[in-house]
Structures are given as C-alpha cells and as structure tokens.
Hints:
Among the domains are: about 80-320, Aldolase class I (TIM Barrel, Alpha-Beta Barrel); about 465-710, no CATH class. It contains 16 helices and 22 strands. Helix 11 links the parallel strand 10 (about 280-285) and strand 11 (about 325-330). Helix content is about 25%, strand content about 15%.
Amino acid sequence: MHTQSLPQLQSPATQTSPRRVKYLTSLDQIAGISDEDRELLKKVSERYVFRANDYYLRLIDWTDPKDPIKQLIIPRKEELNDWGKLDASNEAAVTVEPGVQHKYKDTVLLLCNEVCGAYCRYCFRKRLFMNDNEEVSKDVTQGLAYIRQHPEVSNVLLTGGDPLIMGTRRLREIISALREIDHVKIIRIGSKMPAFNPFRILDDPDLQAMFREHSTPDKRIYLMCHFDHPRELTPEARAGIAKLLECGVICVNQCPIIRGINDDPQTLATLFREFSYIGCPQYYVFQGRPTAGNEPFEVPIVEGWRIFSQALVDESGLAGRARFSMSHASGKVEIQSVDERFIYLRYHRSKYPENNGRFFVCKRNDHAYWLDHLELAEGSYVPKGVEFAQKSPAAPRVAAPDPTPGRAVPQSPRIETSRASKAGGLVAAGFTLIELLVVISIIVLLIGMLAPALSSARKTAGMVRELAAIRQVGSAFTMYAQDNKSKLLPGYLRGSWAKPARRTFIVHESATSASEDGRLFGETIRPYPWRLMPYLDYARPALVLDRTLRTTIEDLSSDRTQAVNFQAAFSRHPTFGMNTTYVGGDAHRGGFYRPSYSRWGTFVVDKLESVIMPSKLMIFASSRGVRSNSGGQKVPGFHRLEGPWHATPTSNSVPAFIPWLAPGRFDAALPTTTFGHLDFRHFGKATTVTFDGHAETLDLDQLNDMRRWYNQATAANGHPR
Length: 721
C-alpha cells in the first residue's frame, strides 16, 4: 500500500489557484531514505544529479524496497559501476550546430532545455545535467536558421531536457517560429511532464491556448509522452492527456524496457492496454542504451524481445502497435524477432540512406545488450556504420627466431653426387611421392566428408535470407493496414488497380492490363504483390527471392511485347503465398463481398484490431506453384496458400470447405495443390510470418493446424462450417 495519498483533482467550481508541486534536489529532503543509505547515495547524486518533486514521490510505496517508482527516481549505489558511455549513441557525431542534431534526412532535434521535471535514473542523456556539458542551447536562433536552410526537414523534435519545464511564453516563441517555416509540417515535443507533473498541463490556460493555436488539422503537434509504469497513470495524469487531446495535440507513449520497473510482460501489457483506452497508444519500446551509470537498469536484447513479444500476445491491434527498437549510432534498428539461433533486425531509419528499410540477421547472443555486441550471421546484409563483434581470431603463427647475432648458422650438409647418393636421392624422392599421394587421398576424403556440411551451410544461409525477407513482407503488410484505417490488404481482388514504379519495368502501350499512365488492371493486379510493392520500395527481390525464377520473369520485361506477361508472372509467383481465404479476403476462394457467405459468420479477418491471436495467425509462408505455358514446371513461388481446410468455388458462388489431399509427409513430386501450395524447402520446413512479426520455420504437422490459418479456430481441425 502507498503510505501517502495522491493529490486530488479539484473541480472547476472549487479550484481557486493553480496547483503547484515542490521540486526537491537534495536527498536530505527525502524522508523515506534511511540515514545509512542517504550517505551512500549522496556519492551517486554527486556524479549523476538527483531531482524529483513531491507529487511524483507520493507514488512510491516506501515499504516495498523494490517499488518500481522508487527504482525509477531514487539513486542506486550500482550506478557508480564502471559501465557504458555517457554518449552511448554518439549523438555528438550528428550535432550540426549547438543544440541541433540532424541524423535523419527529414528530422531535426532541437535540444532547447537542460532541465526535467525530475531525473530518471536510467536517462540516456544524463550528460546534459553535468556542470561541464554545453550541448544544449537555450538560444535556438542558430537552430531555426539551420532548419530554414534545409527544406528537406519536415519534422522537428523539441527535446533536451524537457521542453514543457520551460515557461509557456518561451515555448510559444519557439513553436511560433517553427510554424513560420512552411516546410516544417510536424512539431514533436518529447516530455515526461504528463507523468512527473500533470498540473503543468491542467493548470496553464496559456499553454492550452498555444496548443490549440498551433496544432492544426494540417500541421499537428505531437507530444511524445514518457510513461514507464502503469502506476504513473494517475487520475491527474489521465486528465492531463485528455486535456492535450482536447487541445488538438496527438499523444503517443514511448519507454525503454527497464530492469526492476517494467521488465515483465504483464506490466508492459497493462501499459499498452491502458494507453490504448485513453487515446495515447504506445509508439516505441526501446532497448536501453548502454549509458554510463545504467548497468542496474539494463535488460539484454533477447530477454527484452521475450518480454515485449509476450506483452503483445493477448492485446488488440490498437494496443499492440508498438515497435521494439534500439536507437543506435547508425540509426533506429527494430528488433523484429528472435529464434533459437538468430536475431532478426531491420532499419526503421538510418543515418546512412543505404541502410534504410534493410533487414539483417545476427547470431543469437543472450548476453548482448546492444547492436555492437552482436555477431553478424553469415549471408546477412552488412549494415554501414556498425562495428559488429568478431569471432575470436586464430592465434597468429609465431615466426622462428632470428639466429643469435655472431653465431654461425648451421648449413645443410652438401650431398655428394656419387652413384650411391643418387640412389638414395631416388629413394627419398619416391617416399615423398607416396606422402603426396597419401595427402591427396586425405584431402579427397575430407572434401567428401565436408561437402554435405557445406551444402547444409548454403541451405542454412538461404533459409536465413528467406526468414529475413518474409519478415520484411509481413512488416509491409502491417504498414499497409496502418495506412488504410486498419483494413488488411486483400489477397485476391476481382477488380482494382495499382500503379507500380515505371523504372522497374516496361509497360507496352497497347497492353490490356495497363493504362497509358501505367496503372495495372486485370489478372496482373488481382493477386496481392503489386498492391504491396509500394511498401517494399518496389524492390522485386523482396518478393521473388529465387534468382533463377526472378531472371526468367525479368527476361520477359526486356521484350516490349512480353511486358504484360512479366507483370502477371511476377504477381502470380512471389516467393511467399498469402493466407488469402482467412486473412484479408479472396474474391475467388472464400470471397468477402457476398452476403451469402454470412452463414459461417465472419471467417475472414479484415481489420488489424480483429486479430485474436497475432502470435498464432499466419499471413505468409513459403509457397510453390506451376508456371503457365511451361508444361507443368514447378517453381518456388505462388501468390495463394490454401489451408488444411480451404475454400473452393462452387457453382452457386458459395465456397465449400475441403481438406488437403495430403499424405502424412511432404513429397515435392506431388502436385503443388496437394499441400495447398506450401513449400517445405528448408530442411522439411516452410518459412512463415505471423501478425506479431515473428518469422519461423514450421513443418507439415505444425501447419496442419487450423489455428494458424483461421482467426476463430479453437482446435486444429476447426474450420468454418
């Protein structure tokens, strides 16, 4: 139980003056700390400054030594351990003017204040609060001039420190100046004041008026809130968020995973859920930066992923939209999945344009806290700007020592060229030849033994590349939904159009499947690939991985008369088939437009928030099909998957659900439809990706389970009836 009650909100009728909090900067002012601990912790606060306020301290249960709010705000002796760097993400390298950071093309950070409402003990910018630091510039004139000179900047983040600790008049001056720069569309404010002191928002009508004036329908202000634990979401904090939303401010929450504060799935899930209820959804969950003083708060990457992914399991799509990322010196890296051998990552943003959107794979290391601690997997894309951990080098060969100075070097005895010695030489030569033959035999034997291992290594590298690619396609699928009011991409449409990038192929002017402006119609656009391509930057290798198949398809584009065939072949044979009957919808098999289908209920999930088990429901998997006009040639790719119970059209346009005609094990010689176009090409397994972004390989028995295909299935053989 809490020893002190929270300050209560007053109604407008009874409130006569602003509620003020008292700021505390000395541990001597904290009654809940013993004298013994106080003297020890003063040494910590001398290095990393302490600051809190009476409102926030009232949230602590002083009878609980592991109270999460106490861990967050009260110094700990372990902070003095020699660990990490003060500037763990090398922000100095992207500082272009005093108080101005420009790391990503369209985003500039203005460090406009060096004080916060309180100081989080795990702060990654604690260097700003040290006496000898001059990174922050309270005069933002240079920063504003820099932004004016860079028209590519559309997004400005006010940070520090906490901008909301500044006076409203000063904050208005900065925001008004930014609003005068036409190419700045979004202003973001990074702040923990809604948690530390919600009265800053509730009791300042001038601040509210400033937000109403400058957060417009065309150019919004975003408040990047920083709540770390559900206990921080008090009635006052909820009221503060509600007031910001009322003023037209878009609110989102972000936080790191912190040891002792929110490092369990239940706490994190509660945080996600509560913030989705009040209209302030979780934006990022960060991997803690290896900052000096932060050792007691750090959680390894693999453990962090486990906590994050388990927190998402039972959450709705709205509550589970967060991304688990690390703000590395090279860019914002999303941790997308972890399996028994690898960690799968993707650049959401990068300092280096060539890294943007790229997937890469690292070997699993359960003790690694940061990207630099990981070892890159064989065959992975190599990101620019990262110094990965290396294997331990082989011990260097030690050269023989030079002869001792002044000592004669013994010479080999000269061989006499007598008949006897020549005979001896022939014997020696014969013996050497035998040795050579033995060595050759051993080499041949070793090659025979190693060949299967080398083949297995190549297959493993191919599997890793496919897992990274399917994760990328799954991420693109989710981004499509987020851009389309949560509606999922249909797997197969009767009529629609798409406009691919002209640079990627040739459109024949007389093609019936393309209009003059390059829009695609007909069978080319009915399968999902061309509609998903904008979210993959029109990178065809992301959808057709097999080089032989891709070359065959792309050869069609070199002949203008074959351009339509190229477009249709690409659309028909992506590496990954989509679970179209049950996800997004399929107008041919289990369509989603006709009301006659309602006899089964809604068996097609078409909204992101409707997914019941995002960690179970599959979107894409390895597929195979038959190329048209090829004499039955099987190819590693087909756009549609058919589950163990799949829909097939009938004469009255009502789908009938029929099972696979599959035997007990996969046989590649059988027709591709036998296993619903699934391809178990990786050691008897197929690559898959689910709604939570997790990619893994599954065998036939694991995929013969309708709970992986059908949103409402509660048993392996559960299908719409």
